[in-house]
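go over this chain:
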Amino acid sequence: MEIINDFLPKEQFNALKNVIMGNQLPYYYESSVAEKNDNKNFYFVHEFYLRDKVKSNYFNIILPLLKKLNCDSLIRAKVNCFPRTEKLIKYGEHKDMLKKHNGAILYINTCNGGTYLKDDFVPSVENKILLFDPSKPHQSTNCTDEKCRFNININY
């Protein structure tokens, strides 16, 4: 696990944040967060890349991020949008994929949510990136202090 603050130059990050938190990027409802049988929780996603294909007309906005990660073998890239609730929800433990690979979570806004890697909690702070192996168990949360918690999840 590695954490880097102020990962992207401020101008690049703000351009990315303005699109992600603006009103143009389409988000799609996911009826469960980490466990397929979860009937209580949901979130919204926008997929940039999946299964060897660009899935979004907005793919180019993540190119500075991919370049800075030296990402030459992209598996998946998406934005997660977790709506606020009254109580903080720690979603189920999961692995993004079984095969060992690189993962990055770029936090788009600062809030009281974050990512758990076993007992380590990484808070959502804008423009901070978490680099880790997402084939190991981890958990995400929503937030209670902002309208939504936004992050970009990259598997490569």
Remarks:
- Helices lie at 10-20, 63-68.
- The chain has a mean pLDDT of 96.
- Residues 2-22+42-155 form a domain with the Jelly Rolls fold (CATH 2.60.120.620).
- Residues 10-20 form the longest helix (11 residues).
